[in-house]
Design a protein that fits this description.
- The protein is of the alpha/beta class and 204 residues long.
- Strands 3, 4, 5 and 6 form a 4-stranded mixed β-sheet that branches.
- Helix 1 crosses helix 2 and helix 3 packs parallel to helix 4.
- The two termini are 31 Å apart.
Length: 204
Amino acid sequence: MMNLKGNPELTPKNLMRPLKNYGIACMSMGFLIEETAPVVWRGLMVMSAVEKLLRQVDWGQLDYLVIDMPPGTGDVQLSVSQNIPIAGAVIVSTPQDVALLDAQKGAEMFRKVHVPVLGLVQNMSVFQCPKCKHETHIFGTDGVKDLAKTLGLDILGDVPLHINIRETCDSGQPVVISQPQSDAAKAYHKIAMEILRRLPVPPA
């Protein structure tokens, strides 16, 4: 998605240098293993990998560190929550019932470990036919909104199901970079602004 490949270089202090594109420093387990190799780790191996990505990377001066985690309430979420201070969590879900169950569990888990939940994002909220412009709610209409009411949380925004998002991600040119004036890019920008409004002001 960020058009990044290859192995990170090491600094003289034996720290990994994150790969960079579009002014964003990125680190992933995908940079450290073969491209087609599965990551089937649990328990101590997951904790070790999380520690490596957090503590053994030369992040430099960051405005924000964003950690993209898989759905659910497994070892990755617990390891991150218990090892570093987290300013807030954002729950992303499609509006369908099966996905909402995981989203609710995720929100409740973060609350239990005293991580503020900043709000929910409804992904793939609507599909608009590129020919006739008719809108279809393939995964349901208001599932995430209803969950937000149940949990007492805000909706930070909606991301449409749009072919431009898929194509630009696959080409490594995010829609916010390649098509900044598009409706899809504006949706992401709105979500980012809503998240920033809810985060504590970073120290000067």
